[in-house]
UniProtKB/TrEMBL annotation:
<dbReference type="GO" id="GO:0016747">
    <property type="term" value="F:acyltransferase activity, transferring groups other than amino-acyl groups"/>
</dbReference>
<dbReference type="Pfam" id="PF14542">
    <property type="entry name" value="Acetyltransf_CG"/>
</dbReference>
<dbReference type="InterPro" id="IPR031165">
    <property type="entry name" value="GNAT_YJDJ"/>
</dbReference>
<dbReference type="InterPro" id="IPR045057">
    <property type="entry name" value="Gcn5-rel_NAT"/>
</dbReference>
<feature type="domain" description="N-acetyltransferase">
    <location>
        <begin position="2"/>
        <end position="90"/>
    </location>
</feature>
<dbReference type="InterPro" id="IPR000182">
    <property type="entry name" value="GNAT_dom"/>
</dbReference>
<feature type="domain" description="N-acetyltransferase">
    <location>
        <begin position="1"/>
        <end position="91"/>
    </location>
</feature>
<dbReference type="InterPro" id="IPR016181">
    <property type="entry name" value="Acyl_CoA_acyltransferase"/>
</dbReference>
<protein>
    <submittedName>
        <fullName>Uncharacterized protein</fullName>
    </submittedName>
</protein>
Amino acid sequence: MNIQKGDQKFFLGEDEQYPKAVITYGFSDDGDVVINHTEVSDDLRGQGVAGKLVEEVVNYAREEGKKVNPVCPYAKNKMERTPEYRDILVQ
């Protein structure tokens, strides 16, 4: 799985503008990473792609010394259910 970093996103596919899977984020006033959208194409669903995208954002936030605020329902659920992510989750 070749996940690439784009402009405030991580994506899968050849073209950042038309990705096969994508997770987008921004930043809060406090500097936290805010995950706002996760989308996976039908042909990639059920393969753990969305979870890998969340993992990429978590790794990025850790490298930058930031917390993550998942506004996206999928990312919020994934992060709350994953014990390894709780330390970086905005409370």
